[in-house]
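Entry type: protein chain
Record version: 2
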Amino acid sequence: MKIYKSLLYLSIILLLSCDKQKATIKEIEGQWNIQKLHLIDPLGFKIIVVPTGTVSISPNGKNSPTGRYSIDLSYITEVDTVILQLQGEYQQTGNKEFTMTRAAGSAFTALTPYFTKNDLQFDLPNLDNKGHYFILNR
């Protein structure tokens, strides 16, 4: 009898965790405008820039944990102008965690610690040896 109860509880937990992942994809899919970007270099220095650009997230199907993404971004610092264009595929690996694979094959982690219908925080903690923390809105 204990085994059946344990299996029932485990099934409920798995079902609920899958529903959270589907809800995350549903909320973040679409095109987002980049409002602010926090950059953290390897030495820990933080730069806040006001960029132009978009982040697009397109699932492979309704509530699919896989899909395509694109990041088109440009900003100006005191030293130079930066243009970043990334495209590739993603795989949702946790409730708010994704593995993003570039078209060239290298992968990086993306996190969505906060989102609402119209606002999204999109974090790339180790992209090209810098932390990229985006504030996005629709």
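Comment: The first helix runs from residue 2 to 28.
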